[in-house]
Specification:
The chain has 350 residues and is an alpha+beta fold. It has helices at 2-5, 8-16, 18-42, 68-74, 99-116, 142-145, 176-180, 232-238, 314-330, 341-346; strands at 84-91, 119-122, 129-137, 148-157, 160-173, 193-202, 209-223, 254-255, 263-276, 279-289, 295-305. It is built from ten helices and eleven strands. It has a nine-stranded mixed beta barrel with strand order 1-6-7-5-4-3-9-10-11.
């Protein structure tokens, strides 16, 4: 570079004066040790590769709580990814194994809907469905710690379990982005349904609400004898993205809480609610029991599909939100403390 910027005469002078060249070398050699000693003083170390590989999937941080102004601004707006909205209230278990208690709840709901001006079509001859519900996880609850849920539902005809069961793998988080970041879908060869749900729960106070978002892959017909063979490898074979957790495939997985923690669920449809054009919700009561006659908790819920036709029906969505908040106040004496049924199984809030 020096030879390009100086004149020819100067080049000749440099060639005749080897002392300058050696002098330049001396200066260069002096600068190098100075930099090394400075690096030592400030504690700069040569980067080393960690022996522990970083996890391949990191739980996203929670989004900050929205202000009242932002909540008001977003009211009635449904995110483009949402396919279902589900409103849920936990109900105290006392008496839920008696039909007259359910009839009392149903009658109270009909009277309340009339006061609220919400059209409610009651299902008089609805049949109660029975199924067994349980969850799979590792001994350290690695799935739960990463906002992941692996659930099995076994349908029952009377007391008999069906040969086929429903398997759901979901990423459920309080932040929409954190739920969307993980793809729960199974292998391409496996027939499944995708659902992205906005689940609306009771807030800290009765009459308020909060949301969690659930990114679901649902397999409707899995042979009950082919459920996961006690290792993560068998679950990864069905849901490949589980491998992103970076856990050894030999990591054991089993029913959360053991086989005795399987839940018997009785589900009774109550009727349909109409909130506006294209926004009609299915309402039901689900009762979780350890065994027949031993209720753990109930869940009063209503839900509806969201599609391109009703997504922008802001008035109807607002009406559903308002109804849910008022429903909590009406059923205040019935409400059980807690967040979701899944949280009760794990013993951790959502």
């Amino acid at each position: 570079m020096i030879q390009k910027t100086i004149s020819k005469s100067t080049k000749a002078a440099v060639k005749k004066a080897p002392m300058r060249k050696s002098a330049l070398k001396k200066v260069a050699t002096k600068k190098t040790p100075v930099r090394k000693s400075t690096a030592k003083k400030v504690g700069i170390k040569k980067s080393t590769r960690s022996t522990n590989p970083a996890p391949k999937f990191v739980v996203q941080p929670l989004a900050p709580e929205l202000s009242k102004k932002d909540k008001k601004k977003r009211a009635g707006k449904v995110h483009k990814s949402v396919t279902n909205r589900e409103f849920k209230i936990l109900i105290k278990p006392s008496g839920l194994d008696r039909r007259n208690r359910i009839d009392e709840l149903s009658t109270k709901l009909m009277i309340f809907c009339k006061k609220q001006g919400i059209h409610f079509t009651h299902l008089d001859n609805a049949t109660t469905g029975l199924r067994t519900v349980y969850f799979f996880d590792t001994p350290n609850e690695d799935l739960r710690n990463h906002n992941l849920i692996l659930r099995v539902r076994e349908s029952r005809e009377d007391v008999w379990i069906d040969d086929w069961c429903e398997v759901t793998f979901k990423c459920r988080a309080r932040d929409l982005g954190a739920s969307l970041v993980f793809n729960p879908m199974p292998t391409d060869k496996t027939k499944s349904r995708a659902r992205f749900k906005e689940e609306i729960l009771k807030g800290d106070a009765i009459g308020t609400q909060r949301q969690i978002y659930s990114n679901n892959a649902i397999l409707d017909a899995v042979p009950v004898d082919e459920i996961f063979a006690h290792s993560l490898a068998s679950a990864i074979a069905m849901f490949p993205t589980l491998g992103k957790l970076g856990l050894p495939k030999s990591t054991p997985i089993d029913v959360v809480g053991g086989l005795k923690n399987k839940i018997l669920e009785a589900c009774l449809p109550l009727g349909n609610l109409v909130f506006g054009a294209g926004v009609q919700a299915h309402c039901e009561i689900a009762i979780w029991m350890r065994s027949v006659g031993e209720p753990i908790v109930g869940e009063l819920a209503f839900s509806y599909h969201v599609n391109d036709h009703n997504r922008k029906e802001a008035k109807a969505h607002k009406r559903a939100d308002k109804f849910f908040n008022a429903l909590q106040i009406e059923f205040a004496n019935w409400i059980e403390v807690g967040s979701t049924k899944t949280a009760l199984v794990y013993g951790k809030p959502e």
